[in-house]
Amino acid sequence: MILKIKTLFEDKNILAIDKPSGISVQNDEKSTEKTILDLLPKKYSKIILAHRLDKETSGVLLLAKNEKVYEFLKNQFKNREIKKIYYAIVNGWLKNDHGIINKPIGRSPNDFRRHLAGRGARGELREAITEYKVLKRFNCPSLDPSQREGKKSLSPSLRGGLGGANKFSYLEVKPKTGRTHQIRVHMKFLNYPVACDPLYNPKGFCPKAINRLALHAKSIEFKNLNNKIIKIESPLPKEFKKILK
């Protein structure tokens, strides 16, 4: 089965696509896994990634059709002129309706794949700012880590000890900087990690209707070469709609 990638916007310089969850935007040299660029039609063989999304994240992905527009967009990202909005479902009910997380991000001392905000972060600590707003607090049926792996459920006493198994918050998130895994790291720092996150929340409860990272790149706003503001939006994934209805 060939996966068809949906186009959200296109002109002579820019292509924006609706990236599915579970597909990498690029791989290292050792990997043979197909990337999002491999799945695009051959006419886009020279296209350039203008920014990146994590493999498990879905939503708006921006690509440049030539070097000139790539550099133009790159400068907007560097100067924090591009506005991005994500939707996330996290474990637990956040106490505050909105907030700003201003916490530098470094490397995890225990896992090379992970980044870390706060105490224990290693290497260069880079400024990272994330704004969030609670759109909804809700309860829904969930699966514990054992059930997600097809094993027996955790004992009732352990389930109770983890607390708030069926409590989730639906957030609008605006990253002001563009650090690797920024939203996932910052929500983990607040102790409200993104639901169904295998890297930062492997022991967390997951809404029963979702089998992927509960993070979606909803929209991106930028200027084109004519200095016209363009805003592109991606539809909410069906898994989100199912549990938020």
Report what the structure shows.
By secondary structure, the protein is α+β, with helices and mostly antiparallel strands. The protein has a single domain (6-244), classed as Pseudouridine synthase. The protein contains five helices and 15 strands. The strands form three sheets. Strands 1, 2, 3, 4, 5, 6, 10, 12, 14 and 15 form a ten-stranded mixed sheet that branches. The longest helix is centred in the N-terminal third of the chain and has 12 residues, at 67-78. It is globular and about 50 Å long.
Largest β sheet strand count, sense and barrel closure: 10 strands, mixed
Total separate domains: 1
* The CATH C-level class name: Alpha Beta
Give the CATH architecture. 2-Layer Sandwich
- Cα(first) to Cα(last) distance is 30 Å
- The number of helical segments is 5
Number of DSSP-assigned strands: 15
CATH topology type: Pseudouridine synthase
CATH superfamily: Pseudouridine synthase
User: Approximately how much beta-strand content do the residues carry?
Assistant: 25-35%
Structural category: alpha+beta
